[in-house]
Amino acid sequence: MGKKIVILNGSPRKNGNTSELVKAFTEGAKEAGNEVVTFHLDSMDIHGCKGCFGGHSSRECPCVQKDGMAQIYPAVKEAEVVVLATPLYYWNMSGQLRTAVDRLFALEEGDGNLLRGHDRSSALLMAAEGSAFEDAVLYYDHLLEHLRWKNLGHVLAGGNMNVGDIRGKAEVDEARRLGASIR
Length: 183
Hints:
Layout: E1 4-9, H1 17-31, E2 35-40, H2 69-78, E3 81-87, H3 95-103, E4 121-127, H4 134-147, E5 150-157, H5 170-180
Helix pairs in contact: 1-5
């Protein structure tokens, strides 16, 4: 039986280079028998965290805000693997992805921590014009350390200025192999 995988795609471009990595990863993961759900964050109504500490993890929607995160919370609760996919913006993850990650904190509040641990794993898929991924990877590594999730790996694809530049590059195959490796 395959694993339940959630992909949080923080790219504003539905058909951009990050989405090409997501597509390849998804193909590999599905071929390996996994179930994959992708959330294209830019097309969802997701507000920034209020820092109110009013969340309760046991509620159907653990956050006090009622927005697009209500679709993401149940999927993440059930997921065994959470993939973060993003372009590199100003040496970090996109605002769309960082906002969603901040809002996942509601799963750690209140009646029990439903985010940290729970034998979850994660992978990072990133595309960029340049190749200065170090700060984003450092943040990702610290995040996984806090969450106590296993790191399945990174696919970091630099040198992709225009939509479609990534097609045919080795990183697309690397993303497919990473998805296929999840069993």
